[in-house]
Design brief:
The protein folds into two domains: 2-173 and 357-379, Glycogen Phosphorylase B (Rossmann fold); 186-355, Glycogen Phosphorylase B (Rossmann fold), CATH 3.40.50.2000. 39% of the residues lie in helices and 20% in strands. The chain has helices at 16-30, 75-80, 95-107, 126-144, 153-158, 186-191, 212-217, 237-248, 263-269, 286-293, 324-335, 338-355, 358-379, and strands spanning 2-6, 34-40, 49-52, 55-60, 62-66, 69-72, 86-91, 111-115, 147-150, 168-169, 198-203, 226-231, 252-256, 272-275, 298-301, 316-319. An eight-stranded mixed beta sheet has the order 3-4-2-1-7-8-9-10, sandwiched between helices.
């Protein structure tokens, strides 16, 4: 099967959708399919065509990036000249999905659409821009899709975009061989001076919807030897560093971006992971799976999508979004019981192996491809 994966951003851009598409594409090639990823030239100097993990990446010229959405001038032309059996688009950002859906419809080939999360634009007038986009583009994109995928039942049930459609619920996945509980994190602890600390870690982009303010504010409700490790790049870092310095600078470390190859060691160095997200832009939280695969308990804000990754009290705990005191109580509860952390970590690893391995998820996506191809053939 020849498969096109459409994603507005891709490697070396860092994000959950990008990680998912990369891991899915790699596994689909291992299952015997030909995969090509079509994405944007989101910054100068990237290769137009590149092969990694046995699949090909095509980066198309980008006219502009508006509200973090790449405008690709040649998506339709590119897809019309290629022979694919299935086009699979991932949103957000959204416009590449609309273009690829329109092209698939014109060529008469199946179109699969993964709705990773609802759109939000955190700026004045942003909700009106989102409403206009949904009216002009998203409704058609979903209507033209042969299959609609969401990553959790709770998100599909609460998204206005998916209310009136049948949805295939297929979760994101994690590389359980790359993230493991037997990795040594002592060098990371030594690097950041954390040898005698209880390490509470965040991994991800440092942007508003991740809710990192709640994580930092929770320091008011915790105490030594708890130390906060914030791992990742982002536009809000400077502001949040100022916030941390006003509270207790000595207990919060911002590492900046770290190479992917070092991430398993960072998880190994941590005692728990916190996902404090407060927006529907966070619909799953792949870093939560990475922590569980590494044998670490997680603390999640009680948001649709996020909350399905664990059973509370088994692999981790919930806290109310933006409630720093509630988060602090969760952190202190895990800090006070190393035995509980170990038990939750073991249960988390078991759950990931059972429900979230990349092999299992890729085979479920493969079944969707086979079904839409069969249905398209039956209609002819």
């Amino acid at each position: 099967m020849r498969i096109a994966q459409i994603t507005p951003y891709f490697h070396p851009h860092v994000g959950g959708v990008e990680s998912h598409v990369r891991d899915l594409s790699r596994k689909l090639t291992e299952l015997g399919h030909e995969v090509e990823v079509i994405t944007s030239m989101f910054e100068p100097g990237l290769l137009e065509t590149e092969k990694i993990d046995n699949f090909i990446i095509h980066r198309l010229p980008t006219l502009a990036i508006i509200a973090k959405t790449p405008i690709l001038r040649s998506m339709k032309k590119f897809l019309m000249t290629r022979d694919f059996d299935v086009i699979h688009a991932h949103s957000p950002p959204p416009l590449a999905c609309f273009s690829s859906a329109k092209c698939a419809r014109k060529k008469g080939i199946p179109f699969v659409y993964t709705h990773h999360c609802d759109m939000e634009i955190p700026m004045r007038g942003g909700k009106y821009i989102v409403s206009l986009y949904c009216y002009l583009f998203e409704r058609k994109t979903i209507r033209w899709s042969d299959a609609l995928i969401c990553t959790t039942h709770s998100y599909a049930a609460t998204s206005r975009s998916t209310w009136d459609r049948d949805v295939d619920v297929i979760p994101n996945a994690v590389d359980v061989g790359f993230f493991r509980p037997d990795i040594d994190g002592s060098m990371i602890r030594k690097r950041h001076g954390l040898e005698d600390k209880t390490v509470v870690m965040f991994v991800g982009r440092i942007v508003h919807h991740k809710g990192i303010e709640s994580l930092i504010m929770s320091a008011r409700h915790t105490k030594e030897p708890i130390h906060y490790l914030v791992v990742g790049p982002g536009e809000d870092r400077e502001r949040l560093e100022r916030m941390a310095s006003e509270l207790d600078k000595e207990r919060v470390t911002f590492t900046g971006p770290v190479p992917r190859k070092e991430l398993p060691e960072y998880y190994a160095a941590a005692d728990m992971l916190v996902l404090p997200s407060l927006s529907r832009l966070e619909a799953f939280g792949i870093v939560g799976l990475e922590a569980l695969a590494s044998g670490k308990p997680i603390i999640l804000s009680r948001m649709p999508g996020l909350r399905e990754v664990i059973t509370p009290g088994v692999e981790g705990v919930y806290f109310e979004p933006s409630d720093a005191a509630d988060l602090g109580r969760g952190i202190m509860g895990l800090h006070s019981s190393p035995e509980l952390r170990e038990r939750m970590g073991k249960k988390g690893r078991e759950r990931v192996l059972r429900d979230y391995s990349m092999t299992k998820v890729a085979k479920e996506v493969e079944k969707v491809y086979q079904r839409v191809l069969r249905e398209r053939k039956d209609r002819k």
